[in-house]
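Data availability (excerpt). The following record was deposited with the supplementary files.
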Amino acid sequence: MRLSYLFNAVSLIFLYIGVVAFSPVIVSLIYQDYNSAIPFVITGILSGLFGLTLKLVVNRFLQQDRMTDIKKSEGLTIVLLSWLAFSLIASIPYLFFGFSVENSFFEGISGATTTGATILTHYDYPKALFFWRSLTQWLGGMGIIILFIAVLPQFAVAGRQMFFAEAPGPTEDKLTPRIKNTATALWGLYVILTLIQIGLLVYFKMPLFDAVCNSFSTISSGGFSLNANSIMGYNSIPVMWVVIVFMFFSGCNLALLYRFFTKFKCNLLWQNEEFKTYIKIILIVSLLVFGILFLNTHQHTLEQFTNSVFTVLSIMTSTGFASCDYSRWSVSAQIMLFIVIIFGSSAGSTGGGIKIMRALIVFKYLKRELIKLLHPSAVVTIKMDNVTVAPDIVSQIIAFIMFYIAIFIISGLTVSIIESNVVIGFGGSLATLSIIGPAFGHTIGPAGSYESLNAVTKFIFMINMLVGRLELVPFLILLNKDYWSIKR
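Predicted structure:
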């Protein structure tokens, strides 16, 4: 790895995120809460100065190379360092609002990774801070590197390695031959969906500021809300259905959505196995949850049905919004939610989890192995959308799931011991690794907060968030000794 590449890339992250850190100042000025602007001015200045310092180090002491021949290991490292830098910057403003260091980092990382797990126990904070919480989720939802590939020529030159390092998946999905154009197209769709949701929420009587923040958190699959009761605090079924629609979009493969919206061919959706499975899981599990709730309460109201669909989508897409306190549901209903956590959302979406495509490929792999047990000489290929999946991709997916389960079990057991609570241990580990946020139980459920947890527990959950957002790959390469070959 070449330090000049790493330092140069990270310096740009600090410089430009530092500029973004000034945006909540506008909110402070609009609402005439001038004191709340100070933390963001300081954050922007600190971030900019640090980025400038790194840039000077590169210019003074390291060999300056254009990032035209970046290696995969360097791309993965830049992505990892960029997310650590972004999480650090996202955390700084909280220090000025009475948060402890550990809580500031927890809230900042939760926002940057779009997890939505919060340490807030009250919501008596300036609007500028709530805007910052939602903005960090919105930026993190599509990805910092993808944004910079779209707007900065330095990243566009060597964008391919970093693009697929930040958004790893079973297959590479490009919209155009040039990665810069693909990144620009995805961000364009992302912005348009956000603006449409803002308009619809305002139409259904949500205050404009709330609509902006909640839209940022919906499209990014983030889940931070400036209402203490999340979406249920607005007490509006139309608002919930608007959020449902856009949570659905956030859980789709955005490249597939882009092709659909630009070509208007329904076959693009119905010929996609992952999309069809995504629809089926949502419909089946939502109806099952609704049926379970009906058997328990003997109510079959529109509100009950809305809560069923809303919660299933919120959990499946890892958004983490709440339209009700699902931790009070029966065990059978919560098991249904656990199932959708396992599947997660679509590959190439803003959501988390294992991803439906990976689950489908593993299912087909197991089916093939059963066939080969009965017919040892049979040649059975694994296909997705009538395209053969390469054996090395299947192996990578199986390894990914094994590591995912291993991290879940290790963090779950460790936290269970620390907190003396299995629900917090395994529920919190699954919620943070799948970047859902709210888990099960009273303490860290949709009506709870992570604030009371042990500092070590919070640190473990912060690692889970970063690992879950980057889908393990940049972290797993740290275990390879060949990775640590450093060059100037």
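Summary of structural features: The two ends are 8 Å apart (CA to CA).
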